[in-house]
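I have been asked to look over a protein record a colleague put together. This is what I was given:
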Amino acid sequence: MTEYMNKRNIAIGSIILVIGALIGYILHFETYEPDTNAYDSLLEEYIVLEDEYGTLENRYDELKHEYDVLHKVYDMINDGNLVVVNLYKEIYADYMELLETISEES
């Protein structure tokens, strides 16, 4: 008789334990709510960073354009200096020829 009672108590305890585990499992998923505030804040931060990246990209394009313009101006000045130097060389050569002809005539 005691052996039967022990088996019955073990079976009842096991059933109660399984029912309690199922109730806990169900309640856990019913009360679980994902943290939407963290997602929203991350989404807002992503949007802000994306806007900053777009602004920086536009600023980079502006600076690149300014650099290209300055580089063209530098090239023009450099080319202009070469023209002036070549012109100076021609004038100097003409001047030296004129001096030679004057010295030969006198």
In short: The mean pLDDT is 82. The helical segments are 2-31, 36-105. The chain has two domains: 1-32, 36-106. Residues 1-32 form one domain.
